[in-house]
């Protein structure tokens, strides 16, 4: 095990950009939603930079790009509902696990760590995606962006699971790909570990000053 796990009793993982490369399916759902409301569809490269603050913000960023101004409430609601429908219909068509994820999660689980998932993705998509990859049973808790009153970068979801498991934040680790994961982790008093291969609004994750940057989850278990 990596030295950073010494004395740690809880490991929390982000989902998109950390465990799964989900942008190809997210982009298709965004493109279909914008087409539904008669707007031009953005390329996958744009969508990659818009992921990280949950589905409402993703749709709002896409609409703002297409309109060159913030969308009205009716259009936002219509496009959001279309996105939830399109993404829900095909969340796993092109989505892949990043290298090393399956092995590392199984090894950490076997080593006795409670694993929890804390994503800004709407909760309803978590189980279908983790089940598709046969990983759902490894996680004791799964928190989505709409599960609690606040989502990352708020520390609330992290503190919520630590409290549920009765593990102090100082014995907990947050593993993620974006500045929202690192900000939430720091604010919660967790140790923070970052992956540089995910989605961070085009910004290097070094800027968030995580405690550790690793190129693959396997670095945690080797
Ligand atoms: O849905 C998002 O915007 C990002 O989800 P994540 O928190 O799993 O990276
Ligand atoms: Mg992420």
TrEMBL record:
Organism of this sequence: Vreelandella alkaliphila
Protein name: Phosphoglycolate phosphatase
PANTHER family reported in the protein's UniProt record: PHOSPHOGLYCOLATE PHOSPHATASE (PTHR43434:SF1)
UniProt signal peptide: none
Keywords: Carbohydrate metabolism, Hydrolase, Magnesium, Metal-binding
Functional note: Specifically catalyzes the dephosphorylation of 2-phosphoglycolate. Is involved in the dissimilation of the intracellular 2-phosphoglycolate formed during the DNA repair of 3'-phosphoglycolate ends, a major class of DNA lesions induced by oxidative stress.
Binding site for Mg(2+): 14, 16, 177
Record-listed E.C. numbers: 3.1.3.18
Catalytic activity line of the entry: 2-phosphoglycolate + H2O = glycolate + phosphate
Family per record: Belongs to the HAD-like hydrolase superfamily. CbbY/CbbZ/Gph/YieH family.
Record pathway: Organic acid metabolism; glycolate biosynthesis; glycolate from 2-phosphoglycolate: step 1/1
InterPro entries reported for this sequence: HAD-like_hydrolase_sf (IPR050155), HAD-like_sf (IPR036412), HAD-SF_hydro_IA (IPR006439), HAD_2 (IPR041492), HAD_sf (IPR023214), PGP-like_dom2 (IPR023198), PGPase_prok (IPR037512)
